[in-house]
Amino acid sequence: MRFLRLALALSLACVLLIACGDDTRVGTGGAPDASVDLGGTGLCAGGDADEDTIATADEGSDDFDMDGLPNAEDTDSDGDGILDIEEAGDRDCATPPVDTADDGIPANLALDSNGDGPPDAHAG
Fold first, then answer.
1. Helices in 36-122 by DSSP H: which ranges?
2. Residue 10: exposed, middle, or buried by beta-carbon count in 10 A (0-12, 13-18, 19+)?
3. Which uninterrupted H or E stretch holds 15?
4. SS3 39
5. What residue ranges of the chain have pLDDT lower than 70?
6. How far apart are CA 10 and CA 12, in angstroms?
7. Residue 76 and residue 120: Cα distance in Å, rounded?
């Protein structure tokens, strides 16, 4: 299941990149989309090194899942198999990541992001 989620997320990312080209929204005449940062540092104040639409300032330098990558450079900061870009809550790097369980922990750092008991890595 973990592989399937990763494959689906990567496929979706590829489709979005192909459809949008380079930081532009479809149907806007090529106007930049301020809610998407595909350039690593571009539209996010303070940057977005891992391009997950969560600003580096919001992710910090901690390594939550202890995989050797600081959260700001880790595309899956909590190691639950769900990419941070999917757990961010939106594609706006100007907003902090969403807390879907209302427990004070952003979804990108919560092993049970919806608060239902089973860890996200095992939820199906």
1. 56-59, 84-87
2. exposed
3. helix 2-20
4. coil
5. 1-43, 45, 124
6. 5
7. 12
